[in-house]
Sequence to fold (720 residues):
Amino acid sequence: MSAPTYRHEFKAMASHCEVVLAGVSAEEARRLSALAEAEVLRIEHKYSRYRPASLLSVINRSCEWERASPAIEGVQTSSSPAVTAIPCDAETLDLLDKAELLFQHSGGLFDITSGVLRRAWNFQLKQVPEPQALQDLLPLINWRAVVREGNTVALPLPGMELDFGGFGKEYAADRAAAVLLEGGVRSGYVNLAGDIHILGPKPDGEPWSIGIRHPRHADRLLASIPISSGALATSGDYERYFEKDGKRYCHILNPRTGYPASYWQSVSVLAPNTLIAGSFSTIAMLMEEKALEFLHTSGLSFLAVDQEGRIHQESQDA
Amino acid sequence: MKNTPDGSQLLNALSKSALFLNTMRRSGMVAVAATSAALIGQPVFAEAAPEKSTINFKTLTYRDYQPSDDRIDIDAESFLIQVPIAGQWSITGTAVHDAISGASPRYHSSSLAQIKDTRKAYTGAVTRYFQQGSVTVGTAYSKEKDYISRNYSIQNSWSTPSQNTTFIVGLGYTSDQIIPNSIFLTAKEDKRVVDLALGVTQVLSQTDIAQVTYHHTRGRGYYSDQYKLYDARPDSRDSDSVLVRWNHHFVESANTLHSSYRYYTDSNDINAHTLEFDYVFNLPNQWSITPLLRYYSQSAASFYYDPVANDPWADADTFGAPISVVYPLYAEGRFASMDQRLSSFGAITYGAKLTKHFGENWSADVKFEQYEQKGSWALGNGSDGLKDFGARSIQFGISHSF
Fold:
């Protein structure tokens, strides 16, 4: 008889999330999953760009046009941007350091200032933006221009914004896993909408079997992989997208061109933690045909599906 | 960009900066999974099983066994050993799994439904052979976190003295329990399905064999999908289908053409047609290659609603869904579903399978299939607003019949 497995499901970051634990008592499982959920919600509140009070929103308001001077009523004075350096805590500085590494080593493809492109791409209206609309936004995308001094950060241009969407959920999965590991859990996993951090194998030592969603058949699996530890994340062109004139436009946007990545249907990466797995899969999507070389040199296991539906995969032996 | 960035540099950099780092252990586990038919508790004769008089034709495509005295057989089709490619990724649609990795799932996919704890399935059958026929009594049981299914079946087949005509009568009973695992289902539900199959197989000549099977099901109970938003389906479903198959064997080449047509209609107003051809080319040294072509078309269920571009009630999570249409129906207790599998669509599958047999019981195969689905390919009016599907699958398998 195998030990019971406890599943705790919750909603965070607009997604379905779950914590699965084994090898602990029911009471422990309840207590620890509540802690893990609280950790995920904490990160969501701190870094959501949709919450006006989040630290990220405060950073995104760090540069605003100065209000027109009221001295001479009715006369428009030329305004200049006023920049306020926002002090950050160690966790935020660490995430900004990671953003720097991701930018550097992806040739600038992973840029947390690229969220402004959402102003031009409306996936509900299914309209391809005018090239000029994208051109107007591109100057606002520039991680290099973000001012970091000491423990402060500031945006140099009004309208610029930081967006942790590219790694926030992955980071939250790692943090929730850390909370559980610190609590003594050695069997189970954290699954935040498909970004999965494995805490350890099933109580009988068997790996968890994780399925990979088929990028073109929502109710089918494309593949599966047994995992005892580490993390698996998948990026794909099939969740937020539209088709126009026979071309698919997905939500993974290239910060240099402003246009969506179009080479891969999906990329799954197995890595030591979810942040690495998720950022590698996103960078691979953006690298398009050069992704295989990038993934290959990383030495990580991956499975990528190209637009023809062909599977490219590499596995690492222990 | 100068050169492709080196993934190892980023990995090293991130690993040093990572808050923690797990060592990764990997298992070269070979997954043993049961095929879907056995798992979802479908009656064993839902698609007419190959009859023994057809064995000569079908040894290449069906794993079968010669009749002998009474014995217990594990249904060979129920077990499939999946060989993970390079020891890691297992390319399959049916493997048992614990969780799913994908781009953030939204309500419109059924990803949540796929999350299962463990799945246990057993099938068993006893066959008694007589001079002119056989009786098979079978049972199947499968258990998942949210679904328990029990199936009992009895099938009788008999042949004329010449063995040229074979009749099959089958009766099945399936009893399922649906266990609440989402906010849309609060109490246990059940579903009972009785089904009847009648078939006749006729040897037409030395090289031709034909089969007609009629299949009727009558189901009562919970048919909704507890994982789908505002999904409410009638609590009864009756269906009728007719399957006609014709196999032709080419003497000179020893190749075989399999062709079939199936018509299906049910009380949800779904009418479906399936036309399929495959051709087994025999190659030397126990190799064979089988190209396949299949066309499928179905009409939409009477309570299915198409996605819409910009529903005023939809929010970021339900983007694309006709919430303002479906929610009022659901709230009033009327039938509604946004499940794309109930839409009207047409689909074409083409592909080929390469098989190598090793002696009597072992075979290995690799199968390529391309699947394309479009609303506009349906016979009649196709559903609007659904994404087209197009995918290529490659499947490797090793099979052993017991």
About this structure: The CA atoms of residues 107 and 229 of chain B lie 7 Å apart. Chain B has one domain: 27-400.
